[in-house]
Amino acid sequence: MANMLHGTVEEYRELYLEKNAHLEQFLEQVTPFEFYREIFPEGSFERKGCYEDRKANGIAVTLPGKGGSINGIALEIEGDGRARRYIITDDLQKLTDLADTDFTIMAPISYYGRKRSGKFARYLYALAFDLDGVGMPQLRDVLHQMNKGILPKATFIVNSGTGLHLYYALMEPVPMYPQNQHYLKELKYSLTRQIWNRFTSSIKQPQMQGLLQGFRVVGSGTKLGKGYPVVAFRFGGQVELDSLLEYIPASNGERQKLQGIMQKSSMPLVEAKEKYPDWYERRVVNHERRGRWTVKRDLYDWWLRRIRDEIRVGHRYHGVMTLAIYAKKCSIDEDELREDAYSLLQPYDDMSVEEVNRFTRDDVEAALSMFNEDYVTFPRDDIARLSGMPMPVNKRNWRKREDHLKRCRIIQQANDVVDGTNWRERNGRPRGSGTAQGQVYEWRVKHLNGRKADCHRDTGLDPKTIRKWWDCPPPSL
To answer: Which residue has the higher pLDDT, 297 or 72?
Structure first.
């Protein structure tokens, strides 16, 4: 029983009770109110009815029966199948009311208004991780690795029914500026790879989740039913965001990458206004969207074929979610998208290996909420992580090779006319001329006592490039 990977609902319910009993031996169980009060300290949200506070609030949402997750909002699902959003004010009373629902989720984030888009996110109060494939051996190892400092000690360990939710409550909430979101997202991906290992989960492939991902509300029902609610246990204390970097290996370069992103994301908005006034006027003052172009439908058709043939359990929701993103990006009609998404329902549900992990219409509807202009610039690398499928780079912008080469030849002919050359006669630019090596050499000839810093100032070349070619001979012509 303790090593069970796939089982009946009754077996999972037995395991749920066994995990609760084990956690109660070592940790303190907290009430839903105590849990959320520590995540969202008093004063985090507006007071109920006091709109003059001008603060962001939590958001919660709902669907009937078995649910999936909808990024960034607590969800309760009503009998008519429609998701309902709830504003969570500073008294947290609405969360207490929602504790008796079948499926309600919420992210540890505050938002302005009712939209769960990252564009309206204000503060991140905790980093939360979903860990599946957790039997008793995996639960014991999670506690062991955290006690030994192998993994960062979570503020709360939450029994979510068939897995665990790990919450790291932050000492200071982090403003959700776009660059901060980029850093936090990459930090979460890196930490997921550390937390989700062969000792803590029976599932080999880590399931990446976005920064705005919502989780079942503590006190509400799990996949096992209302009688088996989400339960939270206090483990560690609040964490400093920077301290989490120490748990990411420096050997593979991820920590350095994150430190670089963090440095870039530290520019205050006041400084950005001074340095980039045009950008500030367009994006901050006028709230203009970032420019984009429409992609040919070939991308949509290609992705639909892939998620039909290559998707795996644990990534089905994200497969449909990214299909909705590509549909908006490629200007696909919503009716066509819905038809394609629902054509995946039966084959995806047939992939289920356990009764508690069926793929339902609610999962499809939740995923289709990403058919939204706010997500058309969703990064390709994130789509690869969430879907669990590699994303090859297509340098032809999804054009066929023949069409791509036609464009290249037209540009080449125009260059020949302007330069008075013929590329077939190999009379183009001499090899080495105009290269970084040549620029560094020419600058050094003119500045015999010059410094690398002066060369960087005059040429604009990257300092690493200057160091590379500083002592090299001139390029051969």
So the answer is: 297
* CB neighbours of residue 150 within 10 Å: 14
Structure tokens that stand for 338 in this block: 């819905």
- In 3D, which of 45, 8, 101 has the Cα closest to residue 352? 8
Residue 175, amino acid: P
Cβ pair 173, 125 in contact under 8 A: yes
With CA atoms as reference, report the closest residue to 337 among 314, 367, 381. 367
- Cα-Cα-Cα-Cα torsion 241, 119, 167, 314, nearest 10 degrees, comes to -120
Per DSSP (E only), the strands in 363-421 are none
DSSP per-residue string spanning 22-80: HHHHHSEEE-HHHHHHHHS-TTSSPPTT-GGG---BEEEEEBSSS----TTS--EE-TT
pLDDT at residue 380, rounded to an integer: 80
164-175 and 121-131 strand pairing: antiparallel
106: which 2 tokens? 């919420």
And the tokens for 423? 């590329």
Report yes or no: 233 and 38 within 8 Å, Cβ to Cβ.
Answer: no
Cα-flanking dihedrals φ and ψ of residue 126, to 5°? -160, 150
User: Is the pLDDT confidence value at 89 over 90?
Assistant: yes
Q: What residues contact residue 145 under an 8 Å CB cut-off, 6+ apart? A: 151, 199, 200
316-329 helix and 380-387 helix, angle to the nearest 10 degrees: 150
Task: Fill in the amino acid letter for 9.
Answer: V
Residue 134: exposed, middle, or buried by beta-carbon count in 10 A (0-12, 13-18, 19+)?
buried
Cβ atoms of residues 184 and 174 within 8 Å: yes
> Cα angle vertex 53, ends 372, 100, to 5°?
65
SS3 473: coil
**In terms of DSSP H, where are the helices of 251-393?**
254-264, 269-275, 277-279, 298-309, 316-329, 334-343, 345-350, 361-368, 380-387
Q: What letter would DSSP give residue 217?
A: P
Q: How far is residue 127's CA from residue 183's CA, in Å, rounded to a whole number?
A: 12
DSSP string, 130-173: EE-S--HHHHHHHHHHHHTTSSPPPSEEEE-SSSEEEEEEEEEE
The pLDDT of residue 474 is above 70: no
How large is the average pLDDT for residues 207-218? 88
The pLDDT of residue 78 is: 44
CA distance 452 to 440: 9
Residue 70, CA distances (Å) to 219, 419, 441 in order: 18, 56, 56
